[in-house]
Design brief:
By secondary structure, this protein is an all-alpha fold. It folds into 3 domains: about 80 residues, Four Helix Bundle (Hemerythrin (Met), subunit A), CATH 1.20.120.1200; about 30 residues; about 50 residues, no CATH class. About 5% of the residues are buried.
Amino acid sequence: MTFLFYIFAAIAVIGGIGVVVYKNPVSSAFAMILSFLGLAAIFIQLDAYLVGILQILVYAGAIMVLFLFIIMLMDVKEEEGKTFKFGAIVGAVLVVGGFTGALVKVLMESKIGNETIPALAEGGKSDVHEIGELLFSTYWFPIQIIGVLLLVATVGVILLSRKELK
C-alpha cells in the first residue's frame, strides 16, 4: 500500500507542477485533472471512498468541464507569449521551499501508523453519513454561497469575453 501511495502522490504532484508550468491554459486544466485523479486515488486508498468518488465526479468531471468551457471562451493567444520575470521565479521557489520545509517538519513530528478510525472502530457513523450530515446541516449555507459565486464568475467571464458586433 505504501508503494501505491507514493505512485499516486507523485501523479498528484506532477499534475500540480504541470498546472503551474504549462503556459497554455488548456494544458494546465488537463494537468489539474491528472492531479485530481491522483488525489482521488489517495482518498480511495485511505478508505474514504465517498470523498474519492466525489473528487472524480465533481472536480475532475463537472468543475473541470466548467473550467475548460470558460477557457475556450477566453482569448488565450495573448497569454501564451508572456514570459516569467526573474522576481516571480525567485518568489515561487521561496514559497515552494517554505511549504516543503513545513511539510517535512510536520511529517517528522507526527506519528504515522496503521491506526483505525476511532468513530468506525467504536461502531460510530460512516464517513458518508458524517459528510452528508455536515453538508445538509452545518455547511448548507456556505455551499449555496459557493454555488452562486461560481455562477457569477461564469457569467462574468462570458460577458468579458464577448466580442463587440460591428
